[in-house]
Amino acid sequence: MVNSSSGNAAPERRERQRADASHASALGVANLNPFGDLHTLQHLSARLARSLRGVFEPMLRQAVRSWAEPLTVERFADYLSERPQTLTAWLPMRLSPAEGQALLVLDGRFTFELLDLYFGGAGDAPHPMPTEFSAAAEATVARIGTMIAEPLSAAWEPVSRLSFAPGHVETNAAMLADIDGEDAMVVTRFGIAAGNAKPVFIDIVYPVAALKPLAPELTAKVHGRTAQPEPKWRNGLTRAAMNVTFPVRSVLAEPRMSLGRLMELKEGDVIPIGFGPHVPIMVGRRRLGTGIVGTQNGRAAIAIHTLERLDEEEPK
Questions:
Q1: What's the pTM?
Q2: Residue 293 burial by CB count (10 A; 0-12/13-18/19+): exposed, middle or buried?
Q3: Which of 142, 203, 302, 310 would suit a FRET pair with 95, their CA atoms being 20 to 30 Å apart?
Q4: In the beta sheet, which residues pair with residue 299?
Q5: How far apart are CA 137 and CA 111, in angstroms?
Q6: Mean pLDDT across the stretch 166-173?
Q7: Which contiguous run of DSSP H or E holds residue 78?
């Protein structure tokens, strides 16, 4: 599982023996990649990787690292042949207003670990692994797709205002509609790891045909900058942005009680709780840092112990 120790010193990057994303044209061979070096899409993947921490940290109940792997372009049949022959969730993500769909690809074991955590477990997967997903596991995949859709749209915003909507999860890639083995696909891969634990990987796969309407934006080396805004307007916008409020919260403890004990509770009963010296401080779904619980001016307060950079990009 992502929150368990790997027990080895293997590199985090998953080995992929593939051709580079920039394919050279050859006589009689179709060019899979019409977008050149795909620098823009790699930059969008890096933006999304930073946002994935806000998606998976609440589900895993701990801080994680996330990064984008170098992307590749290949036939869908080749992509399938190199994936492990284990239970996999294939979730179509419908693109709008563009035509077509992307694919969110999740490892089955990771899905069951997240499901176990959701119901209060330690993040254990079944052994042996089942050959198909339960209804609860499919609902977990759909929930992940819904949570990723918003940061995915935000990552694409510098190029195009796309929205993504999850469809019906499949366990057999052959059941995916409108995708053929010969179709060229852009494969973006993201690593997620907690501490020194072995990382897990999720893929977002885009059909080249669905991205062709965005070719001018994807092949642009540098997006043009607009003229400098008028200083008074810019200062007013800055002041307005600085006054935007965000919910700041901290979870001191999450005690567990049996159903029988809950049914016996009455007014005046005491529920004991315990927590360590440092508690997490959250802004929305992002981790701001950690703090120490205390009092100030007669009111409960949290003294900030450490702060995390929300805009810091994961090292390559």
A1: 0.62
A2: middle
A3: 310
A4: 296
A5: 7
A6: 92
A7: helix 76-82
| Cα-Cα end-to-end distance for the chain | 22
Which phi and psi angles does 171 have, rounded to 5°? -105, -10
SS3 104: strand
Q: What does the alpha-carbon distance between residue 173 and residue 185 come to, in Å, rounded to a whole number? A: 14
Structural contact between residues 156 and 206, judged by C-beta atoms closer than 8 angstroms: no
Q: Which two tokens stand for residue 88?
A: 């996999």
- HSE-up of residue 87 (Cα within 13 Å, Cβ side): 19
Enumerate the β-bridge partners of residue 139: none
Residue 261 tokens read as 């004990």
Helix (H) or strand (E) holding 58: helix 39-60
Residue with tokens 């935000």: 154
Measure the CA–CA gap between 35 and 23, rounded to whole angstroms: 10
Asked if 194 contacts 61 with a C-beta cutoff of 8 angstroms, the reply is no
